[in-house]
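Collaborator request, handled under Task 6.
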Amino acid sequence: MTEAPGGDAGAERGAARRLGGTTRRAAGTVGRTARRVFHADGADRSGLAPLSYVTVANFACDAILAVALANTLFFSAATAESRGKVALYLLVTVAPFAVLAPVIGPALDRLRSGRRLTVSLTFTLRAVLAVILALNVDTWLLYPLALGMLVLSKTFGVVKASITPHVLPPALDLVRTNSRLNVLGHVCGSLVAGALAGLVAWVWDSPTALWLLAGVALVAAYVAMTIPAHAEADVHEESATWTVHGRLTGALRAALTRPLGRNVLADLWAVSSLRLLTGFLTLFLAFVAKAQEDASAVEQAGILAVAGAAGGIGTFAGNAVAARIPLGRPGRITATAGGAALAASVVAAFLGTIWAAAALALVAAVCSALGKVALDASIQTDIPDSARSSSFGRSETALQLSWVVGGALGVLLPPDFTVGFAVVAVIGAVMYAQSALTARGRTLVPGLGGNRPRRPGPPGAPV
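Structure tokens returned to the collaborator:
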């Protein structure tokens, strides 16, 4: 009788040890598998591996922030109780970044050293803002703090685009590398970190996830400094510009900068129209969900979940497909992607339902991913090595700004599917027309169209 409890305790300790051993072995297997994925194709030797880690961390920070702010005042203006509240919401969130975006890109493009430090600082500052935000989530400080997080995330995207060409492994080209980074970011960052943040929010509350964000950001800040030194710009690297310079300053400016060729600019217009659409859907659908006064909180969350799942699946599918299709004619891919998304917008405007919105989110995400990879291929093909890093940084700035403009439309337009989709379809049609005209040597926007060679000339050539 006295031995039974001891025997039971011994059996329990043995079972606990076996369970612990199994857990450690499983964790070790997952860790080794993840390491093989991140270090494959020579990424550990080229410096791509640490850039992959911080890219995943950036996706994770964005996903965690979205979870943390889901039930806060961040979307409280979505019901549009008055135009004043909507204007204030736009003023303190979207508008400042629309002003900063054109400044951030060129400034970072001219950064010839310190790119690794800049990446590290974007994460360090996000950790600091996350802590402050966690302590002030129910105050109006939420808006400028959220803006700061948005700006830092977009800043990382611009700097990453400039670093990536310098850390390519021999076995991968730039296009496949960018697709790989996006797939890793969405799977390991958005999905895994978003699910973990959702678990934290369910066990405690949504703002608690901000502490998780701070931890991820601090680790990423350290990893960013392990990117090798050759990721910095070299002395022969040039800057690229969007516009063609005038005659008086052309000779001087051409020695320092090189305008994007007609092919790249046409692709950039098409992909920018796709980014505008995805930015619009991100905020507009959240506002539409909140505007459903007769819907419960669960039903409102369901609307966002359907659209969010469609967008996530579309982005992953688009990157996966892009990594496997031939990219010899990127202009055809961007034109097809832009046309498909435009057609889907028109159909969604006529249908005006949540399922049409979900289908549009899916199509827009697939087309945006495919278009971005094709744009990368166009830059890699048409832009000389010395200006390629700058071209990626400038193009990323244009895409980020397009996303912000789309987000602004999502805030300003009334929460009505038909009206919203009709307006964004018209704007998308204008941008798509500009892309088509640019490819043919014409333009709707002076200086940003086809009045230029198909490919940029050699350094110092007249433009």
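The cover message to the collaborator said: "The chain has a mean pLDDT of 76. Residues 25 and 31 are 10 Å apart (CA to CA). Please let us know whether this matches your experimental observations."
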